[in-house]
Design brief:
Elements: H1 3-16, H2 24-35, E1 39-45, E2 52-58, H3 62-72, H4 79-84, E3 91-92, H5 99-102, H6 106-112, E4 117-127, E5 132-140, H7 148-186, E6 191-195, E7 201-204, H8 206-214, E8 218-221, E9 224-227, H9 230-243, E10 255-260, E11 266-273, H10 276-281, E12 290-296, H11 305-312, H12 316-327, H13 331-338, H14 342-356, H15 361-370
Antiparallel strand pairs: 1-2, 1-5, 3-4, 4-5, 6-7, 6-12, 8-9, 10-11, 11-12
């Protein structure tokens, strides 16, 4: 294979690491051989402490990799010189110090020479105030010192290694963000569906998948979210179409749709349009047009009533009366449930009204519902 073909194949393999990071060892091996070295290392270095951490190496025994990290990174005479070099600039030992001084160092005598390594060419791929990513190709004693051809070959591959590393880092960050987002949604008790303007499912959380698995009031047909009730399904289609229309009147307000299971259990779907302008500004054509949050149509009692007590400075008895109003009903029923006189209930209820600003028992029910835990199962 001619040099042009080898370079083209190497560059292709370099960019393949963006989607398959497991190929980095193979790729830096090919890059090292193209440059003219017998070993290579892609690692991160701290310019202050002169400590390093290997990302991946080729042609270096694991024992020597660990020795470098534990001891010889701080003795490496090239460490500071590499970092102050310009990004993508090939730097050899001769650019940093006289070679006879290099061979007199402990780094050469104890780490490089036992491996038969006599020289290297390195380039900084990226650097910040606290770290630098460095690619270094080592020259074996059988091949001699770094020459101009090796520098030129290094200059050909370094820009592609740098771009592949930065692209890979960006992709990995997005993957981590997506995984965190999915984990957060899976922690919610409500079914969450992200759908496009045609009802196509973009994402569903764990509770959402459970709803679809039941194949009842909501189902997935051909990758689209469909309500079993024809009228509700048409309403959903209209809402999604309006959400994708810049001139739609729905705006960013949530709309609620009733859903009834075969056994008569009632659910409600809150449809929240996601603004098209924000999606368009990011150039995301496939982004969801709306989010659907589906829960049982029932009053959710707060999982931690003490939160309400702290918010409104309620005494324990006042909190008991408030929660009894929510769960049991009116004053007579609460009096029976708590085993106290109706006049006592009215006294505490009056204080609850005063502290919360509510004027009716129905207001207290709404207040308690507002403290419901959205992550509850």
């Amino acid at each position: 294979m001619c040099d042009r073909e080898r370079l083209s194949a190497t560059i292709g393999d370099i960019y393949a690491t963006c989607l398959d990071p497991s190929r980095w060892m193979e790729v830096i091996g090919k890059a090292a051989r193209f440059v003219g070295g017998s070993a290579a290392s892609l690692y991160s270095q701290d310019p202050c402490s002169r400590t390093g951490s290997h990302s991946v190496s080729y042609g270096i025994e694991p024992r020597y990799q660990q020795l470098y990290l534990d001891k010889y990174a701080q003795l490496d005479p090239a460490a500071n010189g590499q970092i102050v070099a310009r990004v993508e600039e090939p730097v050899a030992m001769a650019d940093l110090m006289p070679y006879d001084e290099f061979v007199a160092t402990r780094f050469y005598r104890e780490w490089a020479r036992p491996q038969g390594l006599v020289d290297f060419v390195a380039s900084v791929l990226d650097k910040t105030m606290t770290s630098a990513a460095v690619f270094r190709v080592f020259r074996h004693e059988r091949d001699g010192a770094v020459d101009d051809e090796m520098r030129q070959r290094m200059a050909l591959v370094i820009p592609h290694l740098r771009r592949a590393m930065l692209i890979g880092n960006a992709i990995e960050l997005k993957r981590a963000e997506a995984a965190t987002f999915a984990d957060a949604l899976d922690g919610l008790g409500a079914g969450v569906f992200l759908v496009d303007a045609d009802g196509g499912l973009v994402h569903a959380n764990a509770a959402g998948h459970a709803i679809l698995a039941a194949d009842d009031f909501l189902r997935a047909i051909g990758g689209r979210l469909v309500a079993r009730d024809a009228l509700v399904n048409q309403s959903l289609r209209d809402i999604l179409a309006a959400a994708d229309d810049d001139d739609g009147e729905i705006g960013v307000n949530a709309t609620s749709l009733p859903l009834t299971a075969r056994d008569g259990e009632r659910h409600v779907a809150h449809v929240l349009p996601l603004t098209r302008g924000a999606r368009r500004s990011r150039g995301i054509a496939y982004a969801p047009a709306a989010a659907l949050l589906v829960r049982k149509a029932a009053l959710e009692i707060p999982s931690a009533p003490d939160v309400i007590a702290k918010a409104y400075h309620l005494t324990p008895t006042e909190l008991r009366v408030l929660m009894a109003i929510v769960e049991v009903g009116g004053v007579p029923e609460v009096a029976v449930a708590l085993g106290i006189a109706e006049t006592t209930v009215k006294t505490h209820l009056s204080r609850v009204f005063q502290k919360t600003g509510a004027t009716r028992q129905a207001d207290l029910v709404k207040l308690a519902a507002g403290f419901a835990n959205p992550a509850g199962r």
